[in-house]
C-alpha cells in the first residue's frame, strides 16, 4: 500500500508521469505511449511529433522548418507558434499514466494534468506528514495512493493519535511503546519482588510510596539510626530487631536526649546574648543622628527633559535607612524640575524607628568654577508627617512615595552652561535624619 521515496531528489511529480524527460532532467513533449490510439500515419507523426524530444508536441512551434516543442527550441533560434498543431494535440485522447496501477481513465491531453489532481491511484504524501521511522530509510517521507489515504490515517499511520489504555492520554502511535515505559498508570511489579497485588502489580506512580511505606522486602534503617544504632534490615525484620535490641535502644535514647538538652541550653544562652546585643544597638540607633551623602552624575539631560522622563538614582544610606533620589524632569508640565527623596525597603527596617523625619539639601554643581552652586534645602515638618504618612512610614513595597520639592529649578535654568557640561549635570544630595521625639 505504501511506497517509499528512494531519495529526496527523486520526487514523484506529475511531470514524470506525462512528459518526456531528457538527459538534462528537463521535461519536453507529451509521452507518446500514453496516447489511446497511436499516430495514424507518417504525415500525422510529422505534424504532431517534436523532432527533438520525439514526444507529442507541447506548445507547438515551427523552427528551422521543423515542428518542435516550445522548450525544445535552441536558445537564440528564430521560431513561430503553430496554433493549429496545439489544438490538434490538445484534443488527442490519452490514457491515465497510472493505468498499470489500475486507473482506467482516458480523455483529451489538455485534461490529463487536472485528472492527476484527483486520480485515486496517484501516490501522495500523508496529510499527517509521516515518515519511515527505522532502518536505512529512517526519516524519508512516505507516499500512499490517494485511494488508501483514509485507511492509512485510521489504521497504519505512525503519527495517528491513539489512546493509552492505562492513562487515557492521546499518544502518536509511533511513540506508544516509549510512552508505556514511563506511563504513570502502567502496571509494574515491585522491584523487590514482594508480590504485592499479585501478577498485575501496581501503578508505576505508586511504586515510590510502596517502597517507602509498605514493601516487606525493602531494606530500611533502624528507627534509632540517628541515635547511634547502625543496623539495616528488611522491613519485615524490624519488629524482631526492636525486640532483641530494646536495652541498647534505651541507652542510646538517653544519651541522645542528654545531647539535645545540652545543645538547647547552649542555643538559648546564645539567643539571650543576641537579644541583649540587638536591644543595645536599637537603643543606640534611636538616639543617633545619621547623615547620608550622595553625588549623582546624570547624562543626556536635554533629551530627558524633552521626553518628560523620570530618573532614579542608585540607592544610598542614611545610617541604616535605605534611600534613593528621584527627578521628574518636567513636573506636571510646569516647566520645572522636581527633586524628591524616597525611602526604600531595606534589610534593617525591623530595627529602626518609624516614621522617619529628615532634612534634605539638593546642590546643583557649577561645573565651570565650582562656585555659585544652585542650592535648595528644606526639612520634613510635623504637618508633613500627618499629611503624607505613606512617604515616611516603614516601606511595605520596594519604595515609598517621594517627598521633596516640585520646583527645584526651571528646565531652562538647569541647562545653563555652568551647570550643563558635555550633556551632563552633577547633583549632590545630603539627607540628615531628624529626631521626632
Automatic annotation (TrEMBL):
<dbReference type="InterPro" id="IPR049342">
    <property type="entry name" value="TRAF1-6_MATH_dom"/>
</dbReference>
<feature type="domain" description="MATH">
    <location>
        <begin position="291"/>
        <end position="431"/>
    </location>
</feature>
<feature type="domain" description="TRAF-type">
    <location>
        <begin position="179"/>
        <end position="239"/>
    </location>
</feature>
<feature type="zinc finger region" description="TRAF-type">
    <location>
        <begin position="179"/>
        <end position="239"/>
    </location>
</feature>
<keyword id="KW-0863">Zinc-finger</keyword>
<keyword id="KW-0175">Coiled coil</keyword>
<dbReference type="GO" id="GO:0008270">
    <property type="term" value="F:zinc ion binding"/>
</dbReference>
<dbReference type="InterPro" id="IPR002083">
    <property type="entry name" value="MATH/TRAF_dom"/>
</dbReference>
<protein>
    <submittedName>
        <fullName>TNF receptor-associated factor 4-like</fullName>
    </submittedName>
</protein>
<keyword id="KW-0479">Metal-binding</keyword>
<dbReference type="InterPro" id="IPR008974">
    <property type="entry name" value="TRAF-like"/>
</dbReference>
<dbReference type="InterPro" id="IPR013083">
    <property type="entry name" value="Znf_RING/FYVE/PHD"/>
</dbReference>
<keyword id="KW-0963">Cytoplasm</keyword>
<dbReference type="GO" id="GO:0005737">
    <property type="term" value="C:cytoplasm"/>
</dbReference>
<keyword id="KW-0677">Repeat</keyword>
<keyword id="KW-0675">Receptor</keyword>
<feature type="coiled-coil region">
    <location>
        <begin position="254"/>
        <end position="288"/>
    </location>
</feature>
<dbReference type="GO" id="GO:0043122">
    <property type="term" value="P:regulation of canonical NF-kappaB signal transduction"/>
</dbReference>
<feature type="domain" description="TRAF-type">
    <location>
        <begin position="115"/>
        <end position="172"/>
    </location>
</feature>
<dbReference type="Pfam" id="PF02176">
    <property type="entry name" value="zf-TRAF"/>
</dbReference>
<feature type="zinc finger region" description="TRAF-type">
    <location>
        <begin position="115"/>
        <end position="172"/>
    </location>
</feature>
<dbReference type="InterPro" id="IPR001293">
    <property type="entry name" value="Znf_TRAF"/>
</dbReference>
<keyword id="KW-0862">Zinc</keyword>
<dbReference type="Pfam" id="PF21355">
    <property type="entry name" value="TRAF-mep_MATH"/>
</dbReference>
Amino acid at each position: 500500500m505504501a511506497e517509499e521515496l528512494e531519495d529526496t531528489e527523486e520526487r514523484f511529480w506529475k511531470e514524470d508521469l506525462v512528459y518526456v524527460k531528457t538527459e538534462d532532467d528537463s521535461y519536453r513533449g507529451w509521452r507518446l505511449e500514453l496516447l489511446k490510439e497511436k499516430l495514424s500515419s507518417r504525415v500525422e507523426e510529422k505534424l504532431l511529433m517534436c523532432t527533438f524530444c520525439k514526444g507529442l508536441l507541447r506548445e507547438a512551434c515551427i523552427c528551422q522548418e521543423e515542428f518542435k516543442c516550445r522548450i525544445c527550441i535552441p536558445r537564440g533560434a528564430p521560431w513561430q507558434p503553430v496554433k493549429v498543431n496545439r489544438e490538434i494535440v490538445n484534443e488527442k485522447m490519452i490514457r491515465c499514466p497510472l493505468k498499470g496501477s489500475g486507473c482506467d481513465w482516458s480523455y483529451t491531453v489538455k485534461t490529463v494534468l487536472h485528472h492527476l489532481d484527483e486520480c485515486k491511484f496517484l501516490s501522495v504524501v500523508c496529510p499527517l506528514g509521516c515518515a519511515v521511522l527505522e532502518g536505512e530509510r529512517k526519516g524519508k517521507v512516505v507516499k500512499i495512493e490517494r485511494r488508501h489515504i483514509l485507511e492509512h490515517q485510521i489504521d497504519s499511520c505512525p503519527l495517528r493519535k491513539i489512546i493509552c489504555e492505562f492513562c487515557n492520554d492521546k499518544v502518536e502511535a509511533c511513540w506508544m511503546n516509549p510512552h508505556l515505559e514511563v506511563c504513570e498508570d502502567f502496571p509494574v511489579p515491585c522491584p523487590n519482588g514482594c508480590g504485592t497485588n499479585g501478577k498485575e502489580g501496581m501503578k508505576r506512580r505508586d511504586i515510590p510510596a510502596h517502597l517507602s511505606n509498605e514493601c516487606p522486602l525493602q531494606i530500611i534503617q533502624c528507627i534509632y539510626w540517628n541515635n547511634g544504632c547502625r543496623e539495616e534490615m528488611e522491613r519485615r525484620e524490624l519488629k524482631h530487631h526492636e525486640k532483641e535490641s530494646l536495652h541498647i535502644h534505651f541507652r542510646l535514647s538517653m544519651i541522645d536526649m542528654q545531647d539535645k538538652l545540652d545543645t538547647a541550653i547552649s542555643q538559648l544562652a546564645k539567643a539571650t546574648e543576641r537579644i541583649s546585643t540587638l536591644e543595645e544597638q536599637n537603643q543606640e540607633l534611636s538616639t543617633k543622628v545619621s547623615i547620608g551623602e550622595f553625588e549623582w552624575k546624570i547624562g543626556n539631560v536635554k533629551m530627558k527633559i524633552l521626553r518628560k522622563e523620570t530618573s532614579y538614582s542608585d540607592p544610598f544610606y542614611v545610617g541604616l535607612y535605605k534611600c534613593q533620589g528621584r527627578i521628574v524632569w518636567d513636573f506636571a508640565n510646569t516647566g520645572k524640575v522636581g527633586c524628591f527623596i524616597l525611602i526604600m525597603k531595606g534589610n534593617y527596617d525591623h530595627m529602626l524607628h518609624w516614621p522617619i523625619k529628615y532634612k534634605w539639601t539638593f546642590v546643583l554643581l557649577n561645573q565651570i568654577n565650582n562656585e555659585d552652586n544652585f542650592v535648595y534645602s528644606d526639612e520634613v515638618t510635623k504637618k508633613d508627617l500627618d499629611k503624607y504618612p505613606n512617604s515616611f512610614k516603614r516601606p511595605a513595597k520596594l519604595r515609598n512615595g517621594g517627598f521633596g520639592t516640585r520646583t527645584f529649578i526651571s528646565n531652562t535654568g538647569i541647562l545653563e552652561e555652568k551647570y550643563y557640561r558635555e550633556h551632563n549635570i552633577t547633583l549632590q544630595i545630603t539627607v540628615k535624619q531628624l529626631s521626632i521625639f
